[in-house]
Amino acid sequence: MSAPASLLSAQPLVRPIGLADGRQRAVIDAVLPCVDNGRFAAKCVAGEPFAVEAHCFVEGHDMLRVMLHWQREGEASWTEVEMALKWNDEWHAQFVPPVPGRYRYNVEAWVDAFESWHHELERRVDAADIRIAARVGAAEILAAADRAREAGQAQDATRLQGWALALEARAADVGEDAALLKGQALDETLASIVRRYPDRRHATALKPGFPLVVDRPLARYSTWYELFPRSASPEPGRHGTFADVQALLPGIAKMGFDVLYFPPIHPVGRMQRKGRNNALVTEDGDVGSPWAIGAEEGGHDAILPALGTHEDFRALVKAARGHGLEIALDIAFQCAPDHPWVKEHPAWFKWRPDGTVQYAENPPKKYQDIYPFNFESEDWEGMWLALKGVLDHWIAQGVTVFRVDNPHTKAFPFWEWAIGEVKRAHPQVIFLAEAFTRPKVMHRLAKLGFSQSYTYFTWRNTKEELVAYFTELSSRPGLDYFRPNVWPNTPDILHAQLQTGSDAMFRLRLVLAAMLSASYGIYGPAYELKEHLPRHEGSEEYLDSEKYQLRHWDRGRADSLAPYIAHLNAIRRAHPALQRNEGLVFLPIDNDQLIAWVKQSPDGQDVIVTVVNLDPHHAQWGWLQFDPAAMGFGVEPGQSFQMHDLLGGERFMCQGARHFIRLDPAVSVAHVMHLLRKTRSERDFDYYQ
Amino acid sequence: MSAPASLLSAQPLVRPIGLADGRQRAVIDAVLPCVDNGRFAAKCVAGEPFAVEAHCFVEGHDMLRVMLHWQREGEASWTEVEMALKWNDEWHAQFVPPVPGRYRYNVEAWVDAFESWHHELERRVDAADIRIAARVGAAEILAAADRAREAGQAQDATRLQGWALALEARAADVGEDAALLKGQALDETLASIVRRYPDRRHATALKPGFPLVVDRPLARYSTWYELFPRSASPEPGRHGTFADVQALLPGIAKMGFDVLYFPPIHPVGRMQRKGRNNALVTEDGDVGSPWAIGAEEGGHDAILPALGTHEDFRALVKAARGHGLEIALDIAFQCAPDHPWVKEHPAWFKWRPDGTVQYAENPPKKYQDIYPFNFESEDWEGMWLALKGVLDHWIAQGVTVFRVDNPHTKAFPFWEWAIGEVKRAHPQVIFLAEAFTRPKVMHRLAKLGFSQSYTYFTWRNTKEELVAYFTELSSRPGLDYFRPNVWPNTPDILHAQLQTGSDAMFRLRLVLAAMLSASYGIYGPAYELKEHLPRHEGSEEYLDSEKYQLRHWDRGRADSLAPYIAHLNAIRRAHPALQRNEGLVFLPIDNDQLIAWVKQSPDGQDVIVTVVNLDPHHAQWGWLQFDPAAMGFGVEPGQSFQMHDLLGGERFMCQGARHFIRLDPAVSVAHVMHLLRKTRSERDFDYYQ
Q: Which residues are named in the active-site annotation (chains A, B) (predicted)?
């Protein structure tokens, strides 16, 4: 034998990462939500439960206790919620953040000697084992009594001590009945006292926890209407004003919108001003692009005089509130060549050797009327502060929602800072990122703090595309931080599908947007009036786009989709299932032109099944697979149920899992069906109402 | 107007996380592999490329440069490899760690003014624009010249300066041809010099980078054979010895194994020793369970005298090496009641009030002959050091592979520390985790440092189960750190499928293990001799299990599967496609009893298609979907190819994407087919060989 003298080494013990003591045995393998391991904040809504899942375990058969901690940032203390094990080492708990703001949450886990003992004793049947276990438990209870006393809870301490001594005494009495002893040892009332004084000396927690941004409900569920105030005049040819917009508010509110969004309202540059249809030369009276911001009248903190004054604007904001509408302003951080900042802060722009600034380009698009900011400026601090000042200025005027133009062409660290700062002071403010760009870039912006994000919806047209995209949008990890806002059209995007002007196509894209996504918007009145001519074949630009000229709209036209929009938005407002993105499940239907899905409210009470015919020309039919019994929607197997079509008004009597669907676009492009379950009494006498 | 006097706030600028300067504009959104954000190490193999992917971008249209850095831990300097953009903001590079050990890698990205300029100029056609661009570029090149000079590269500096001045001069000459000027500005030779001196002042990196464990190839690809040395005697009834095992080495090597693994070889406890078939009382001559470690002869550093001495053991290790076999030892950190440590270190065990230690249990299994260590011991440091001392002891005897028994019943922080320490000193050592437990626990052990992991393979039997499980095993995130080792049987698990003793079932489970997983093992000679009787109906325990008694095996039996095993292992050895887990793709085949998949080597040269009939009773047939042209396997569309069945020897002439397969288990349970592509010359004259 050549065994060494001793296995006991004298070498120092280098501890693994984060380990203070080898007895920190509880493992927290993961915490969800978790955006890039806590580098970025998850998002939720004030007044609603925020659910946290933690993957925790320990070696062997010992029992854990796991706590969820949360606090509003800056508060001294944390609130604690006990987590419960569901299955597969997944522990769950939730809390309701009361008000918007920045919060933190974390998970703490420890191996609990009392729970381990309790759990083991429950399974003991052998009398000798029970007697020994009672003595082991008595020691644990005594230790808890000591901790109670240290915590100043003398009464609990005394009670636990009494229990421990009684157990000890009865365990020593060989005449004692083991079953009775076990019963006493498992006393639930006393156990609940012990549980108040756990031994957390060797608890594990993940430092420094996870950030959470809590928004108000509008961030989760919103319905947007975009219009150009300058086209709001009821008289053809007259420049619209804020007062004109004010007159439109009742009609917009009647359509069921809650956010009214304006393109930039600032003075429009005169240098390099664009003419109609993006012409490089202007004609008399050309109003230019509102995104060419700034002229001698002022820049990002000024208002185009033709629209009105700051006072008019504040009056409009107030009037909109009265109609349940919030005004969203477009934040486009760029300057017309005659923006005052170009002269005042030349360091914020990138000058070329010929003394010019390279105008903005997004090949093949050229924006000769726009100078981009230079985010490599030596004076980046001054520029950042000024840009954030723009946000502060409009917040001071009552604006609480910003739609940010092309955020992906401004430095990403700027947004993290600016949104973070603004929301620290004004947690109610909502930012929508207008970034139609590569997927990772769009996700980064959402991580950096944008409350909502534009999406690829406009270009997701087939069933396969829609199913894949909305499955992604309603799944982790994006679900935790990326809130989609889907738009069937924008002033920049007239999709080829709409260029036919097909009434059915305009309706079906609306139904898809309104029923698939908790937030959606349209650019009107172009949408409800089915404006559909492109600037030229193959272009996604509108002909005679409002981006470059005033337009006069006949809002009262008989074929306007306004009543249909109002109907869809009323359905959204009445059904919580439609006001969130999680819980979306696509349903099989054996026709590629028919797409079907179900959404449910968190409490499972509200269930909406939508089926859309993607073919605007022909009736399509097929068999829908929908089994409310198997999906846990409160229908017993074999029981009949009703599907109430909220769009068409029909009530379908259904049973089983397969249902025949036929949709003729000449009649209706979609069913939006509310699942009606009958109570037992209704089932008895009211079967065929 | 009520605009504020100035938007320029005097408030201090609070910077976002990790941002030193607002001009750090490059974003590194993710780095892959990344195990829990770098909390744990990814794994790879020395001498083989380790591929890293980084998701990097910047706002707008500027160009990035991205570098991969890597170093062996403890080295002062990093090696740098330029990453290349593939698509979707995904940058790729790889490096080859030369030897086993702990490494780190990281990614650095910066916005590169020269690349941005170069990229923009390439698209310029307007002569005035080109002239301005040439002057902009000249300034960038001059700056690079300065950096070259600072780096002591005077020659490069002079050359760049010359280029810059020439560009400047020609740009100023209005007679100069713009196309020629552009050509000179885009000179690739000179550009490559500029690229050596980038401006990294505002580079971004993720601190502190990502750890990497580099193993030797055996960690990736290994073939294990388990036997009980005490049953190795050729004479029935005699206790086997290391010398007996030595005599078996040629046969084991001939079967194609490279790891020979023994259950514990230590003195077996006498107190509470188990009898045959796990009986609580022993009869004369009962040898007990080798997992009941320790007796008066010694503990974890001792050898059961009946097996031999340390000298014999070292001789066996050496002889095995001569046959291409490494000895793997079972590390079971637990003690028989008469293990010396129980008396020497009572603090390492959990004593009950009656002066006993609670024996190990894994309900319903009871291990009355085993005391677990108490990982809550006050002397945890002493115990950790002693347990690691066991590993050091056997490493000193030449052992380089450990199979760790039930690691999930020992504290997780211990493994991270012990494996980390051992591998820092001995990077060649391989640890296999025998944890048949919940999925998150098994994954945690792999993250903590185990080189390989037992799996659920034994209980994945249907096509659906196998496809789902092996898809998971060959996918991220597990693929980066969890290396499966699959076992059709173990001394603890005789699966119900094998209890019929069906020759076809024993063969098909072998083919699944050997062809699906880069590492697999069997417990022999029980497997090759088709040992199949359970201890009782419904049990997964073997009847007359070697765990509790000596067994005598007739290794030369005519129906032994040894030649079949040798054949499978020879195929594995000849085909790199089978020696790794990534790149597995299951193929559609329209029969639920037939399962088919393709594996390919990293260079795409070696392609193996396996089809297994999961029904051991009946012939099964179906259409296999396999299109080597569409899968990029070097077959032109429409071209024929051969599939050479390495098991049966047939050569199938194939074309197109659908292939008829029929497998009769009476003939063969599987095809293991090597894709043969013909060169052009072969195609001309050798078509029907």
A: 405, 434
Cβ neighbours for B192, distance < 8 A, ≥ 6 positions apart: none
DSSP labels, B128-163: HHHHHHHHHHHHHHHHHHHHHHHTT-HHHHHHHHHH
Whole-complex ipTM: 0.94
Cβ neighbour number for residue A148 with a 10 Å cutoff:
22
Residue A548 assigned ligand-binding role: yes
Domain range summary for chain B, segments of one domain joined by +: 20-108+204-215, 113-198, 223-575, 579-688
Its sign, for the CA torsion A228, A230, A234, A236, is negative
Q: Is the dihedral of CA A411, A417, A422, A427 positive or negative?
A: positive
Same fold: A20-108+204-215 with A223-575? no
pTM strictly above 0.90: yes
Mutation site, A7, A89, A129, A300, interface B, largest B CB count within 10 A: A7
Q: In what order do the strands lie in the sheet with B607-613?
A: B585-587, B594-600, B607-613, B670-676, B641-645, B651-654
Dump pLDDT digits (tens) for A27-80.
999 999 999 999 999 999 999 999 999 999 999 999 999 999 999 999 999 999
With CB atoms and an 8 Å threshold, state whether B438 touches A300.
Answer: no
Let me know the angle formed at the C-alpha of A289 by A286 and A294, rounded to the nearest 5 degrees.
Answer: 105
Say yes or no for a CB contact (<8 Å) between A389 and B4.
yes
SS3 of residue A671 by DSSP? strand
Residues 6+ apart with CB under 8 A from A375: A383, A410, A411, A414, B22, B23, B25, B59
Identify which of B27, B59, B441 has the shortest CB distance to residue A410. Answer: B59
The reported pLDDT for the residue numbered B20 is 78
Topology of domain A20-108+204-215 in CATH is: Immunoglobulin-like (2.60.40)
Residue B677 is predicted with a pLDDT of 85
- B434 a catalytic residue: yes
Touching check for A372 and chain B: CB below 8 Å? Answer: yes
Decide if B125 touches A, using CB distance below 8 A: no
pLDDT tens-digit series, residues B632-677:
998 999 899 999 999 999 999 999 999 999 999 999 999 999 999 8
Single out the residue of B656, B665, B662, B502 nearest to residue B596, CA to CA: B662
Question: How crowded is the C-beta side of A441, counted as CA atoms within 13 Å?
Answer: 25
A385 lies within 8 A of chain B by CB = yes
Is pLDDT of B395 > 90? yes
Please tell me the class of the B223-575 domain: alpha beta
What is the C-alpha to C-alpha distance for residues A166 and B191, in angstroms, rounded to an integer?
87
The pLDDT, as a whole number, for residue A366 is 83
Predicted pLDDT of residue A176: 84
Segment B437-466, tens digit of pLDDT: 999 999 999 999 999 999 999 999 999 999
Report in angstroms the alpha-carbon separations of B207 from B19, B28, B211, B481.
12, 11, 12, 21
CATH number of the B579-688 domain:
2.60.40.1180
3-state helix, strand, coil in chain A (%, to 5): 30, 25, 45
